[in-house]
């Protein structure tokens, strides 16, 4: 049986942590940084974690 291939679009968007959790970049960070307040920028900063069915779907696309 052939190997399962990694979905390359998903591989560029998701990252698997050392403990196997799947993280992704949050929204609202692409451009227009100076238009957003510092408070809003702090709120959207950092990686977010996928949970539930979303995590399950992403894991399957990543071949896990």
Could you explain the architecture of this structure?
This protein is an alpha+beta fold and 64 residues long. It has 3 helices and 3 strands. The two termini are 17 Å apart. The protein has a 3-stranded antiparallel beta sheet with strand order 1-2-3. The radius of gyration is 15 Å and the shape is elongated. The model has no long low-confidence stretch (mean pLDDT 93). A hairpin with a 5-residue loop joins strand 1 (14-16) and strand 2. 36% of the residues lie in helices and 16% in strands.
List the helices and strands and how they pair.
Blueprint: H1 8-13, E1 14-16, E2 22-25, H2 38-44, E3 47-49, H3 52-61
Antiparallel strand pairs: 1-2, 2-3
Enumerate the spans where pLDDT stays under 50 for 5 or more consecutive residues. Answer: none
Distance from first to last alpha carbon: 17 Å
Order of helices and strands: HEEHEH
Strand order of the largest sheet: 1-2-3
Give the mean pLDDT: 93
Q: Which range does the strand content fall in?
A: 15-25%
Q: How would you describe the shape? A: elongated
Please state the CA-atom Rg, rounded to the nearest Å: 15 Å
Helix percent reads 25-40%
Structural class: alpha+beta
Give the number of helices: 3
| Main sheet attributes: strand count, strand direction, barrel closure | 3 strands, antiparallel
The overall strand count is 3
């Amino acid at each position: 049986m052939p190997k399962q291939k990694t979905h390359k679009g998903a591989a560029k968007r998701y990252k698997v942590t050392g403990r196997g959790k799947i993280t992704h970049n949050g929204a609202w960070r692409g451009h227009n940084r100076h238009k957003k307040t510092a408070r809003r920028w702090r709120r959207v900063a950092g990686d977010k974690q996928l949970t539930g069915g979303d995590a399950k779907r992403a894991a399957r696309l990543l071949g896990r």
